[in-house]
Amino acid sequence: MAGLDKRVSSYAEALAGLEDNMTLLAGGFGLCGIPENLINAIQLRGPRQLTVVSNNCGVDGFGLWSLLQNQQIRKMVASYVGENSLFEQQMMSGELEVELTPQGTLAEKIRAGGAGIPAFYTATGYGTAIAEGKESRVFNNRHYILEQAITADFAIIKGWKADWYGNVIYRHTAQNFNPVMATAAKITVVEVEELVAPGELEPSQIHTPGIYVNRVIQGTFEKRIEKRTLRNGR
Q1: Which of 33, 36, 101, 222 has its CA 20 to 30 A from that of 24?
Q2: CA–CA distance from 173 to each of 24, 30, 34, 169 (Å)?
């Protein structure tokens, strides 16, 4: 990797510097748009006591679940437990520290972190367990609680296409949390389905500018479906 060229040739190189006790942002919603190969590479690399911020923690047998199984996650910041019995088990036993956060609040905490905003007020969660221990204020006769922004040491992101300079395009709903997470980490690593030469991406279609990306790698993906429902034929 030299100059503006962000390409790396191996997942070991992509994750260089990821160590114990770091905070990790992981893009995706359910299994849609998750950086599945980077997750697998983190399991093999073996860092422990991680704080992982993601909408959820994969499903039984796939995604971030593998890091739970390997006991690499100390704390999970997420919006819901989802289809993950191991997440539920570790949370209920106290083995895993969990900070459940309303989904919109989670997205805004990450966006604020990337924008350099340390905290913000939101009405979401006021009067519930979410607000316990948090500062509250009244604006225009409505109660709000103070939420602190989230930043991380690493962000692992899944894109559709990227060029060598790290400019990224996401595909449809696979965009989800990925763009905001790409802005909020010291080191952002993106894995994509297709890598193209600079100039091949239409500038108006780029979602994440390369200035936010440190490393980009091309991978192949299983794209597992979280839950499939079929209608019985007649």
Answers
A1: 222
A2: 22, 11, 11, 12
Instruction: Tell me if residue 168 falls in helix, strand or coil.
Output: strand
Give 22-45 pLDDT, tens digit per residue: 999 999 999 999 999 999 999 999
| Whole-model pTM over 0.85 | yes
Count of structural domains, the chain: 1
Summarize the confidence of residues 89-118 as an average pLDDT. 97
On whether residue 20 sits in a domain, the answer given is yes
Residue 221 tokens read as: 């993906």
* Residue 57 contacts residue 83 (beta carbons within 8 Å): no
Can you read off the two tokens belonging to residue 137?
């204020």
> What angle is formed at CA 112 by the lines to CA 110 and CA 115, rounded to 5 degrees?
115
Q: Please give the sequence-ordered ranges of beta strands (E in DSSP) within 126-171, or none if there are none.
A: 136-139, 142-148, 152-163, 168-169
Tell me the C-alpha distance between 222 and 225, whole Å. 9
Q: Are 61 and 31 in contact (CB under 8 A)?
A: no
- 26, 156 contact by CB (below 8 A): yes
Average pLDDT over residues 132-139: 97
In the predicted model, is pLDDT for residue 2 greater than 70?
A: no
61 in any annotated domain: yes
Q: Is residue 59 part of a domain?
A: yes
160 is in which domain, residue-wise?
11-119+151-218
CATH number of the domain that residue 109 is part of: 3.40.1080.10
User: For residue 13, which amino acid is it?
Assistant: E
Taking only the tens place, the pLDDT of each residue in 165-207 is 999 999 999 999 999 999 999 999 999 999 999 999 999 999 9
- Distance, in Å, from the CA atom of 76 to the CA atom of 154, rounded to the nearest integer, reads 15
